[in-house]
Amino acid sequence: MAKLPEHSHCENCGDPVPFGEHFCSDTCSEGYAKEERDAKNKDLRFYGILAGVIVIVAIAAYAVRTLMS
Predict the structure, then answer these.
(1) What's the CA gap between 19 and 32, in Å, rounded?
(2) What is the spatial distance between Cα 32 and Cα 30, in angstroms, rounded to a whole number?
(3) How far apart are CA 43 and CA 40, in angstroms?
(4) Does the pTM of the predicted model rise above 0.90?
(5) By C-alpha distance, which of 8, 28, 29 is closest to 19?
(6) pLDDT tens for residues 43-57?
(7) Are 14 and 31 in contact (CB under 8 A)?
(8) Quick one: three-class SS letters along 56-67?
(9) Rounded distance, CA 54 to CA 4, Å?
């Protein structure tokens, strides 16, 4: 069995890269950064919508409780 030289894999596409490097090209590095930004924005939108829904439910519960009294 042949011994492979020490290497890592590109964090974006998975191609082999020299050990210690994270990306095989600038294109992969930029693509990875864009995916990270998009994922962060998606998370922020989700938590913003979740907070809005919680506020609406709390206001509705307060209104129902107040009207029932």
Answers:
(1) 19
(2) 5
(3) 5
(4) no
(5) 8
(6) 999 999 999 999 999
(7) no
(8) HHHHHHHHHHHH
(9) 54
